[in-house]
Structures are given as C-alpha cells and as structure tokens.
Amino acid sequence: MPLAEIWYELWDVVHPRVHQVLGGQSALMEEIEVELHRDGSPQEAHFSFSYSPLRTSCGNVVGLFCACAETTKQVILRREMDRERDMLSQIFEQAPSFIAKLDGPAHRFETANPAYLQLAGRRDIVGKTPLQAFPEVLHSYVDMLDTVYQTGQPFRVDGARVTLQRMPGVPTEERVVDFAFQPIRDRHDMVNGILIQGMDVTERNAALTALQSSEQFLQSVLGASPDCIKVLDLDGRLQFMNTGGRNVMEITPERLIEGLPWTDLWGSLDKTAVLNALDLARRGQSTEFRAFAETLAGNQRYWEVRVTPVIGTDGQPQRILAVSRDISQLKRAEQEREHLTSELHHRLKNTFAMVQSIIRYTMRYATSVESAREILSGRVHALAGAQDILTQSIGGETPINEVVESALLPHRAGDSRFDMRGPAAMMSGRQVLGLSLALHELATNATKYGALSVDTGGVVVRWHVGDGGAFTFGWQEHGGPVVTLPQRSGFGSVLIETIVATYFDGSAKLLFDPDGVKFELTGTIATLD
User: Is the pTM above the cut of 0.70?
Assistant: First the structure.
C-alpha cells in the first residue's frame, strides 16, 4: 500500500523526509506527536522514525528502510514525571516549612528553599558547610548531622532554641524551631546526603507560652488566694473550689466536695442568710453577708461572704460565684479594740487621779511658786515618759528594765554613772507609773544634792523577782557628798515611801546614810491593773 495511505495522519511531516531519503540522505524524526485513530477514536501517540536509503550494487537508490518505534508511553510517563517534578518544585519553593538538602559527609548545602533562606537571613549558603554558612551555630548540631550520616537513622527535635544572625551587621537572636534530619540514600542504599526539614515556631511558641503563663497565672492566683472561691450551679451545688479555699476550709485533698450543697458547709448554724443570698443570685442580684461557720475540721471561723450571679450570653444567670473571706482575725481585733478601749479608759482614770495627787501634794509641800513650778514640771515629765511606755505596751505587759532605763535616761551623763541589773520581768500599768515617779524623785535629788551632783558619784540599781511575783528593788548612791538627814520631809519622800509602796502591795524605806542615799522597796509585781 502507498505510504501516504498508511501514515495519512503524518504524511505532511513524513513526505519531505521520504523525498530526502530517496534522494540518498538518511533522516531521523524523534518522538513525533500525532493523533491516531485507534479503536474508533482519536488518541495521542508519539513515534520515532529512522529512514535509510536502499541502494543497488551500483549505488542507485531504489527504496528506503524505515525503523519505527512508538514512544507514546515513555513520553506520557516523562510528562507525568515532569509535572510531578514541577509540583514538587513548587511545594519546595512555597512550603511554609524550611527545607534544605545537604550533600556528602561534609554536609555541603546543595539547595535550600526560600523559607530556609529567610531563617538564615538570606545569606549565601549553597556549596558551604553548616559551620561555614552559620559560624554562630553550635558544633553539637554538626555532630547530629554526622550521626545521621553515619548511622542512617533520622533525628528529630521539637522546640530547639538556636541563636542566629538573621541579617549581616545585626545582633544575633534566638529562634525556636522544630526540625528533622532525614538521611538520603542512593540506588545502592548508601547514605549520600541529608534532608533538613522543619518549622520556625518562635511566634507560635511565644503565643503558647503566653497562654500557658496566663493559665498558670490564673491558677496560681486562684490557688494562692486565701479567699474561699466557689462556683455553684443554680441549685447551690459546688462545681469548683480553689486550693486556697480548700485550705482555709480545712478540706483534705482526698475529700470529694463537687456536687455537695453549699448549705451543707454551714453545718447546723442558721442558714437564712445563705439561702437568701442564693435566691437573690438566681434572680440576678448580688449580695453580701457576715456569719459564723465551722471548717470541716470543726474550727469556727467568721466569714465575710459575697454572692454574685454569673450571667450567660442570654443575659440570664447560669452559675453562682460565692467568695468567702475568713475575717476571724478582724472579728477578734474588733473584740480586742473594745477591750483596749476599756483598758485605756481605766488607765486614763488612773493617770488623771495620779496627776491630781501630784499637783495637790506638790503645791502643799512647795516653799514657793517657782519651786512648785519646777518640781511639778519634772514630775509631770516623768509621768509622761512612763505613759509613753504604757502606750507602746497596750494589750501586753511592760518589762521592768525598760521602765528603769526610760526613767533614768535624762540623768545619764555616761554609762558608768549607773550600774543597773535585774531580770526582764513584767509589771502592770499602775506599777510602771509608780516606779517611774519614784526613780524620777531619786534621780532628781541625786543630781541636786547627792551622788550625781559630783563627777565621782554613781548609783547602783538592783531588782529581783522571786516566786509568786515577790519583788525587791534597791537604790544605792556612792561617791557623792556626805549625806545629812533633811530637816523636813517633802512630797517626794511621801511619794517614794508611801504612795509607790501601795502600788506594789508592800513597803518602802528611804535611808539617808552618810555614804549615800538608799531606797529599798519590797512587794509583789502584777501584770494586771
């Protein structure tokens, strides 16, 4: 049959080649695409033709030899491979994850996608080893690459922190990455490279850390709060209680309280305020109340409670928030304040009574108005000093040594002038006032006439406390002028020997020995007025 009829679909392409071959030249056509009618329908086909002239022994061309091979499958397969390669190239280029291929045992960069180059700060890395491309990277990462190359085992790390210089001339920065080193094998199953693939998760990690910190902060705040924070359903049953609340309510960790009616935690006490607060919360109203309730260990507490409705998206109460604060100390403080107010009233009455006595007796024994003014000023000043000590010790007791040191402080020109020793026992407010006034009188007289009027003089002060509060106090002057018995006794002597002694339920003696004035007080100390 004529060739033009057999290859009519190709005749326009083949015809010039046929004439070329019949003219004595060979012709080659590779992978010619043609649409052939096969099985009743046009189909894509590809052929390769080789035309050679056939010659006689004289060399004349009398025909041609055609070798034809259909390459349709190979072309289509290659096209699919090219399409897949293009697709993989697009994935490689557009992938949000960073990808790089390392070649050989030196791990030289063969290629890297834009995400990897962005992480690397757009630096030129192709053909370089990791340490050449990233001199700031730790050698441990290179050791990991060596291990993967040598063992053929992949390596993966999540949340690794790497320090990179993203751009030339700028400081390094820390990035958080998830990455994997995957060995690449040749046709002999030998490792000849490594694929690096991963994600820069710095921002995600920061957001996750912030979220976790926020949750941990909220949990820590709720846990650290000393308040008992509870979430109830509308029936008043417990759905949540913070750790601080369990602690203050003395609820053991193993005790299950979820679903327990809140009213059960109030024991057998009056629950009217609790039920009223729950009813108001169901109607969308907040309320506060104070009441006593026992912990689960049976210890009574005084609570300040605020109950608030938790409003849902529909504007209606969905749950109830109840915050109970243990104000037992505040309650005790109120009670103590009432007690202290009463104590202050009592002390003020005692102080005013003593001031009245000091004024009355000072004026009675004074020899002149000027003398009375000076003596009265000193005694009131001593009384004020004692009152300062009492003010600081309200609700408690006052150590004897503080009373002695405070009363003698204005007369101490040097530590060597006074030798004071005795136990740090406690005494009541009235005794503080009395002993302070006695020491003031003794020190004033010693400064004017006795041992403290000369540089060589001094005073020995001793006190002792025995069983049952038995108390002795002594004052001994030495090194001063020769003492003579005064011609008349003043209010100071009366105060020292009579009034002060009554405060100690005992007796007192003022002795005018030639070597120095002595004062001896015996009685009982008390810690209550």
Answer: no
